[in-house]
Each structure stands twice: as C-alpha cells, then as structure tokens.
Amino acid sequence: MPVTSPIVVLDSGLGGLTVVRALRKVLPAEDILYFGDTARVPYGNKSGDTVTRFVGEIISYLQDYDPKHVVIACNTATALALPSIRKQFPRLTITGVVDPGAQAAVAGVGSCTAPRIGLIATEATVRSRAYEHAILHLRADAVFSATATPLLVPIIEEGRSLDDPLVRLAVQQYLAPLCKHGLDVLVLGCTHYPILKDLISHVVPPGVAVIDSAEQCAEDVNHRLTAAALRRTDQGEGVLRCFVTDDTPKFASLAERFLGLHLDIAPEWVSPESLYTPRRPEPLRAAV
Amino acid sequence: MPVTSPIVVLDSGLGGLTVVRALRKVLPAEDILYFGDTARVPYGNKSGDTVTRFVGEIISYLQDYDPKHVVIACNTATALALPSIRKQFPRLTITGVVDPGAQAAVAGVGSCTAPRIGLIATEATVRSRAYEHAILHLRADAVFSATATPLLVPIIEEGRSLDDPLVRLAVQQYLAPLCKHGLDVLVLGCTHYPILKDLISHVVPPGVAVIDSAEQCAEDVNHRLTAAALRRTDQGEGVLRCFVTDDTPKFASLAERFLGLHLDIAPEWVSPESLYTPRRPEPLRAAV
Fold first, then answer.
1. Longest dimension (CA), chain A
2. How many CB atoms lie within 10 A of CB A66?
3. Is A155–B151 a contact, with Cβ atoms under 8 angstroms apart?
4. pLDDT confidence band for B282 (50 / 70 / 90)
5. Which whole number is the average pLDDT over A269-274?
6. B190-225 b/e with 16+ CB inside 10 Å = b?
7. B173: chain A residues, CB-CB within 8 Å
8. Crossing angle for the helix pair A165-181 and B165-181, nearest 10 degrees?
9. Chain B nearest-CA residue for A245
10. Which residues of B fall within a CB distance of 8 Å from A169?
11. What is the pLDDT of residue B96?
12. CB pair distance less than 8 Å for B169 and A166
C-alpha cells in the first residue's frame, strides 16, 4: 500500500466533517475522501442490520481508491457496524470513533476511584451499549450512564443558535438525569454535538470534562499511520474530496459549520443505486 | 381493473398511517398496502430529485399488485414528486395530500375576503411552494404564509407528551410569526402533525381552523373510487399489509400511535436494494 493512498472518512451525513477538521490539523498532507450518505441520513434511529448494510455499501464503493485507512466518523455506524464491517473487509484498516472516545473519557477521569462517566448519543448508539463496553473494558470500576438525545441532531441541522431558549431547554432536559446521577466526565457520542459543546459545558456542573471524540479519533489515526510508516511527510496540503448521496440545498452551510472552513468545491453526487454497482474510480489527484 | 384491487398508501416512514386510519373509516372494506420507507426516512430535508427517485422505486415495486389507487401519503413526497411520478406511471391513478389539504383549507375560510391561510410543514414542502400554488389556484385572493417546522417530526417520533414544555415551546416558536401575521386557517402540512393537533389548536388564536389533510385525503379517494365504480361494497373488513425498508425497534409503538389501533401483524421487510429488482408479488389475501 503506497504512502500516498488516501484516508476515507464516512458518515451518515455531514457531522463527520468534524473528524475531517481534526484530521487536517494533525495530518495536513493527507488526501481525504469524505463520504456523506445524505440521501439516507440519519442512521441514529435505524436498525443495526440496515446501518451495517449502508456502511458496507459505502466502503465497497470507495475501496477501489485503495485507502490506507478508513474512518467510520459516525458514532451510530461505529457502534452498530464496526465489528461486522471489519470482518467484511479484512484487508482494510478500519477504525471508528467509539474506542478513541472511550479512551479520552477514561483519560479524563484521571486516577479517581469509581469515576462517573456519562454519555449522550443517538438512540441506536445508546441501545448498542458500545460505549459502555469500551469504557468498562478500560476502567472496570467506572460508573456508566447514558441518555439518548434524538433532538440534538435536528436542532443543530436547523441552524439554531446556542442562546435559543429551545436549544438550552433541550440540553437541560437531556442532561438533568445524568447530572443528578453525578458526573465526572461527559462523552459527546455523536459527531454533531461538538457544535453545542460551549452550551453543554455551561449546563453540566463545574469541573466536568466534556469529551469530543473527533479530536481523539484523529490522534488515533495519526498514531496508527505513524506506527505503520504510512504517514505522509511531504509539505503540500492534502486534497479533500466530498461525495454525497443527495446534494441537498443545505450542503454548503452545514459543511462549513462542521468543517470550520469554506469548501470551494461542490460535492460529487453518488446515486444510492450506484452503490450496488461500483465503478472504476478516476485518479484522485487528477480529478481535482 | 378489478374492484378487489388494493389501494397503495406510501410514505417516507410511518406518519402516513394517519391517512390509513382515515381511509379505514370511510372505506372499511378496501385492502390497503402500506409502504413506509423507514430505511431512508425522513424525506423532508432531502432534494426533489432524490425524493422523486425514492417514490418512483416504491411504486415500481408495488405496481405488480395492480393497485386501483395510489396515495402518496407524505406531504414532502407529494409536493416534490407528484407531477413527475404521474408522468412516470401514466396507467396508475395517483393522488397526494396537498390538493385535498388545500381544498379543505379553502373550504375552512368560507366566504370571507382575503382569507389568511398559514402552513406548517417540512423544509422541502415549504420550499416547493406546492401548497401556495394549490391554495392560490382555488382562492386567488388568499394571503398565504408558511413556516418550516423541522423539529416537529423528531419531537413526535421521540414520543414526547403534549404537556412537555419543550413541545409547547417548539409549537409556540414556530407559530408566532404566522399568528403575528394573522391567521384564519392553519394547514398541518405533514402527516405526523395531527398528533399535535390539540396543542396547536390551543396555541393559535381562538377561531382559527386547524386543517388535517389526512381526513380530506381519504374523502378524496372515496369520491374518486365511487365515481369510477371501483369502490368495494362487500361487508368484510379489508386487509392491511405493511411493508417497511427497515424494521426498526420503534415500529410497533409508532405505528400504533399513528394508526390509533394495535397492529397484530409484523411489517414485511423490503431491502432498499430489492427496490431496484422488483419481484413477482405473492397474492395479497393468501399471504395474510
């Protein structure tokens, strides 16, 4: 596998661009192929079978680009699909956001005994218990609690500001049982939620660490590429190409919000049907 | 076309079961095939091209059942796709929920001059201007205004009660500009919204008529079947079969909420892929 191969980052929609943002900070020279399944978004209220099928289709479609690393930048998809997706693509290196998030949570509690770790995430992520298992595997004495927060993604995608009373009320309602239960660390278990991080940090009691798994996920990729001698060391800036299954009117504004920078190229549209009939891709750099 | 042919009702998810509920009241002997595209729900934040493609796939899949009537029981799908879907399937009778809703709205204002008609709906439905065109076609002097209310579907699907302060706040925020603008009639332009009808009726000023297009849509189907001599007159109760593209854990509770009765049969799963390779269907009655 050449060191110039791209990193694939995939998500149900555009929230995974928060992971791209973090990757570009630590690995600026890497080429990144981002895939947002905007025709079938969200994944958070769907079954494990369906989400696994969707993720498998996307990776099949992109594997001809010979990626050196695939990041499932969606907590729901990681929680529901990662183990079976790894079996389905044994020759690819595939990582997700749950293990890095769990590692960051455990690092955040330091050495206190019986640390209280809370999670907010989609219904499907909470139901999967993937974070609970990952955290208890690292810290068997942790006291874990989780709340499904299904309104936060649509609230963020609607573009409401952090001082909107409805946004504040939703965050307060969702966090109340976790705060009552006691909290040392709160994990934001969805790549959309960093947009609300400032508000969430104000609503939790002082001293609670709020963990955003995107940064930890990027560090994890950096570490793995370095260990495998696959990290690019050239000075140029990597290419970012975006694929979407629906070119929705809100793509530009949402992409800018999650990525934190203006995207000066339009996304490339991939019909959901064509995911079943992969084509030979064009060269990554030549097409830009 | 035999009088015993079924009626097809399709929706992005399960909200269209409110239309099935209304149909069963006025046409109890009819067989109904309900299709909920739960793997790709929602449609309200997607593009017209994508929604038209999805609706076309579903009708292609079900047309071998030789339906005597197809109802697009989703406001977004009706608003974005109905005209091109009718061209794509010229031999089928296909109706939606927008025209019946517009007719009910205009009937609701009576003979007052310059009636003020408001709409709440998904972003895509509002953007399409389908209701505006349908209403102004019937009443050129109507003063139309619309607000996209993207949080209402996830709020309803989360199962929150009507006295939840967040539900009340969302409804108040969304309706404030319409109420300020002045309102004689408010159209609920999404098949989910009848669940919130009691709350909405309390938030709008007294005397404002709140129009639910599901009932009017069922009356419209009844009228058309009668006119075409296709209405079943036998006494038995019609069969209801449900197809879904994702058998989500919440199917039973949501279906019961929208349908208003317990579904004693599980839905039949149709994989999104199989929508591209229609099979020969089994006989409708024998399979039940």
1. 55
2. 15
3. yes
4. low
5. 85
6. bbbbbbbeebbeebbeeebbbbbbbbbbbbbbbeeb
7. 166
8. 180
9. B50
10. 165-166, 169
11. 97
12. yes
- pLDDT band of residue A287 (cuts 50, 70, 90) is very low
Q: Closest partner residue to B39 among A46, A246, A247, by Cβ? A: A46
A21 neighbors A260 (Cβ within 8 angstroms): yes
CB-based contact, B93 to chain A, within 8 Å = no
pLDDT tens-digit series, residues B174-198: 999 999 989 999 999 999 999 999 9
Would you say B218 and B264 are in contact if contact means Cβ atoms under 8 Å apart? no
From chain B, the residues in CB contact with A170 under 8 A are: 166
d(CA B15, CA B29): 22
Q: How far does A178 lie from chain B, in Å, by closest CA?
A: 18
Q: Do B39 and A40 touch (CB under 8 A)?
A: yes
Residue A283 — very low, low, confident or very high, per pLDDT cuts 50/70/90?
low
Residue of A nearest to B155 (CA): A151
Residues in chain B: 288
Q: What is the pLDDT of residue A143?
A: 97
Interface check for B246 against chain A (CB to CB < 8 A): the answer is yes
Block residue for tokens 């079961």: B17
Please name the residue of chain A whose CA is at the shortest distance from the CA of residue B124: A249
Name the DSSP letter for residue A72. Answer: E
Judge whether A155 is closer than 8 Å to chain B, CB to CB: yes
Torsion sign across C-alpha atoms B176, B180, B183, B187: negative
Bridge partners, residue A185, by sequence? A117, A209
**Mean pLDDT of all residues in chain A?**
92
- Confidence (pLDDT) at B288: 40
* B175 close to B200: Cβ distance less than 8 angstroms: yes
DSSP secondary structure code for residue A98 in this structure:
H
Report pLDDT digits (tens) over A78-115.
999 999 999 999 999 999 999 999 999 999 998 889 99
- Residue B138's region, left for phi above 0, alpha for psi from -120 to 50, else beta, is alpha
> Which chain B residue has the Cα nearest residue A37?
B40
Maximum distance among all Cα pairs of chain B, rounded to whole angstroms: 55
Contact yes or no for B45 and A272 at CB 8 A: no
Residues near A277 by Cβ (< 8 Å), separated by ≥ 6? Answer: none
- Whether pLDDT at B53 is above 70: yes
pTM, to two decimals: 0.92
Q: Compute the half-sphere exposure of residue A214: CA atoms within 13 Å on the CB side of its CA.
A: 26
* pLDDT recorded at residue B287: 45
Instruction: Please list the active-site residues of B.
Output: 74, 190
pLDDT, greater one: B188 or B263: B188
* Helix/strand/coil for A144: strand
